[in-house]
Automatic annotation (TrEMBL):
SUPFAM superfamilies: UBA-like, Ubiquitin-like. Pathway: Protein modification; protein ubiquitination. The keyword Transport does not apply. SMART domains: STI1, UBA. It comes from Pedionomus torquatus. InterPro entries: STI1_HS-bd, UBA, UBA-like_sf, UBA1_UBAC1, UBA2_UBAC1, UBAC1, Ubiquitin-like_domsf, UBL_UBAC1. The keyword Transmembrane helix does not apply. This is Ubiquitin-associated domain-containing protein 1. PANTHER family: UBIQUITIN-ASSOCIATED DOMAIN-CONTAINING PROTEIN 1 (PTHR46738:SF1). Residues 94-105 have a biased composition (Basic and acidic residues). One of its GO terms (biological process) is protein ubiquitination.
Amino acid sequence: RLHVCTMEGAEWLEEVPEDTTVEKLKERCLKHCVPGSLEDPKTVTHHKLIHATSEKVLTDTKTVLEENIQDRDVLLLIKKRAPPPLPKMADVSAEEKRKQEQKAPDKDAILKATANLPSRNVDRTVAHHNMRDFQTELRKILVSLIEVAQKLLALNPDAVELFKKANAMLDEDEEDRVDEIALRQLTEMGFPESRAVKALRLNHMSVTQAMEWLIEHADDPTVDAPLPGQTPAEATAEAGASSAEATAGPSSEEGGEEAKDELTEIFKKIRRKREFRPDPRAVIALMEMGFDEKEVVDALRVNNNQQNAACEWLLGDRKPSPEDLDKGIDTNSPLFQAILENPVVQLGLTNPKTLLAFEDMLENPLNSTQWMNDPETGPVMLQISRIFQTLNRT
């Protein structure tokens, strides 16, 4: 069931099977809102359907399923703009003449005009470093905001219960974080489901890369071995044990101390679950160049799992260092103060889900997109980004 809108304000629901092509869907929409429009075959080609959330123009030849359109998605039907008329030859000549008159000076002309100016040494490396500072500063901001959020949430009398639920949600999230469509595509090719799940997790849900991995490791005796790390069942059992201890504790000052200690332990468990996961392919590729595994993991962590950037870091001055990533921003800086004074950020810091998002983005920047699109955490991240960009320009 799709919600279709037009630029004129018309709205209605269309029910279509998943194998319906975008072109057929467009015909149905035009038939609904512009009676008699299909008499002209060009009408269909002169309109386009846009997915409202992703702002993507849908391809006529693809099906609803191939375009990953979900139930209750909103589509916008609009008329394509007519291409501008081709300029006349006289206009072209006049435009070329104007461009020649406004042509920028060449290198020789610039050197001649600036020959008498005093020379200055411009540190290009500093300018380049300032452009790269966004990710570094964002990490520092997240580190400091995590500390603030933990303090705020610890004051909540229901904090322990909230984070037990968050811990359980995290277990489910780790267990179920698999793209169902991608998994179905691989299982339909004949790959076992458990093996396909492992391949998708190792390859960031890319069907193509997962398929290559499955073919490459088909005869590998360890292909069905589980991924390293704590299992969700173990984590849930630990959380349940902590829950039982907290319930049995007294509701006095001593009980408050126990609750505080338990909250600290839950924070540690959440942090352990969100530990940085290096891209396995990048690790292998960089180790084959002769680098030590620990160096490679550090390089990928500093450079957000980007293999080329990690290679440059390993070959360069290795700045920032992995230790720098754990340092927060100056809490007295105008930037941090502006972030804390923002009402949206203040409200978000009282939500346990925001803390989980910060922890996740800190160790796994590739997951930033899902938190930016989340209705609870997205507005907070948007405000932080806007404040950073505004102060960075002043």
